[in-house]
């Protein structure tokens, strides 16, 4: 292993001093001195690290689960050939466990006056901003016995966006939306709330949709088509309090809620509705308001990326007050939160009359698949006790959901993999029945 500059110089001076002071060490010095001279020679020919120039470029954002490529352009303006070991330091969560050491280190040999492009490939395992402040470089001599080492400040930030795994459900939901929007022949009376147009009768159409006045004026039977009302307002509220920090399956509850919100936002913007975002626990953590349809998804993912759950009980009254200020006219309020009995009874239920007085309220919650597994477990005494505890938990969630429904709230309680499509279906159902 090559010695760094100060270490090599200190070793050489120390050995020479010992040889001069202790005559018995003269033989040792005669053997070691050539090596020490070689080390000093190697150190003298190593390119100085403080004169190297580093410039960053590359990705500034990446979806969770994908790769980001950050380039470092290393320029050698010196007259010596640079034999470099470069460490591009990033937080440990920038790579899967055990791969950071290999992914962050590079080797390069750069001739005088030339430059070399080094690429660091990141594979982040968490949302949020990943920052790199420093690049550490070691410049070795031609013999590889000694090296100069130093650091350069070359800051760069990569924002890791939510994964949006529920995107795969979008084609099916858009097909259902087209049916509601009067673009297919299977649309029937009652599936929309706004009159759209007349078309010729097709066998199989609901006879109640026949427009007899229009039929009397032409030679064919005319049928009315309907479409959902457009330009409705939707406010998605993410509860970022302590209940959102719990992990369900492989991800925190908050990440699953974000994924469902992204599918709903994409679908609603395609439907012509206006959709805003509020993330809140005891204070607003993120807001998105008044974006055009093509801006909604990018704005949502960028706002959600740095949000982390706060380990405090959410202030539901303040959350409701903030939501009402953002939704001054009749809207659909989608609250992504937990269905645990205590937070709902002490926090949400007291403020529900304020929300339901003018708005349609939908509460979406993530059910723990482990509870369902425990409820069906049998075989020994421990499994039976676990099954009883799980059944009690499921009963409490059902009772809490029923209490919300009695207040006119639409409740979606689904497993992590099913929450996003279930929330989208609930939105489409509200549109088809004219409640939105």
UniProtKB/TrEMBL annotation:
<dbReference type="InterPro" id="IPR002881">
    <property type="entry name" value="DUF58"/>
</dbReference>
<feature type="domain" description="DUF58">
    <location>
        <begin position="198"/>
        <end position="401"/>
    </location>
</feature>
<protein>
    <submittedName>
        <fullName>DUF58 domain-containing protein</fullName>
    </submittedName>
</protein>
<dbReference type="Pfam" id="PF01882">
    <property type="entry name" value="DUF58"/>
</dbReference>
């Amino acid at each position: 292993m090559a010695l760094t500059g100060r270490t090599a110089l200190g070793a050489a001076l120390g050995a020479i001093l010992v040889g001069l002071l202790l005559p018995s060490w003269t033989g040792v010095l005669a053997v070691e001195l050539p090596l020490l001279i070689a080390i000093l020679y190697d150190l003298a020919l190593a390119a100085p690290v403080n004169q190297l120039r580093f410039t960053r470029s590359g990705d500034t954002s990446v979806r969770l689960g994908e790769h980001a490529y950050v380039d470092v352009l290393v320029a050698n303006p010196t007259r010596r050939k640079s034999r470099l070991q470069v460490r591009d330091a990033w937080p440990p969560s920038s790579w899967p466990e055990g791969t950071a050491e290999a992914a962050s280190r590079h080797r390069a040999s750069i001739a005088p006056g030339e430059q070399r492009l080094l690429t660091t490939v990141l594979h982040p395992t968490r949302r949020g901003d990943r920052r790199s402040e420093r690049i550490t470089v070691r410049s070795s001599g031609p013999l590889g016995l000694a090296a100069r080492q130093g650091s350069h400040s070359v800051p760069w930030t990569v924002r890791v966006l939510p994964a949006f795994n529920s995107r795969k459900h979008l084609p099916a939901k858009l097909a259902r939306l087209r049916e509601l929007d009067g673009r297919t022949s299977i649309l029937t009376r009652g599936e929309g709330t706004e009159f759209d147009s007349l078309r010729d009768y097709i066998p199989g159409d609901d006879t109640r949709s026949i427009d007899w006045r229009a039929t009397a004026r032409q030679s064919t039977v005319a049928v009315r088509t309907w479409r959902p009302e457009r330009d409705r307002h939707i406010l998605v509220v993410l509860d970022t309090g302590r209940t959102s920090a719990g992990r369900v399956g492989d991800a925190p509850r908050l990440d699953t809620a974000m994924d469902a919100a992204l599918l709903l936002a994409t679908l609603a913007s395609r439907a012509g509705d206006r959709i805003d975002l509020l993330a809140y626990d005891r204070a607003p953590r993120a807001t998105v308001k008044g974006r055009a349809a093509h801006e909604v998804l990018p704005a949502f993912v960028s706002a959600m990326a740095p949000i982390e759950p706060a380990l405090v009980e959410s202030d539901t009254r303040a959350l409701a007050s903030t939501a009402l200020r953002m939704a001054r006219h009749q809207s659909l309020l989608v609250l992504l939160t937990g269905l645990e009995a205590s937070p709902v009874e002490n926090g949400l239920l007291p403020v529900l009359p304020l929300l339901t007085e003018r708005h349609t309220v939908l509460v979406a919650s993530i059910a723990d698949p482990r509870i369902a597994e425990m409820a069906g477990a049998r075989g020994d005494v421990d499994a039976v006790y676990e099954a009883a505890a799980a059944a009690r938990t499921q009963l409490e969630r059902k009772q809490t959901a029923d209490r919300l429904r009695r207040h006119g709230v639409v409740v979606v309680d689904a497993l992590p993999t099913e929450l996003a499509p279930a929330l989208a279906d609930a939105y489409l159902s509200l549109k088809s029945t004219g409640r939105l």
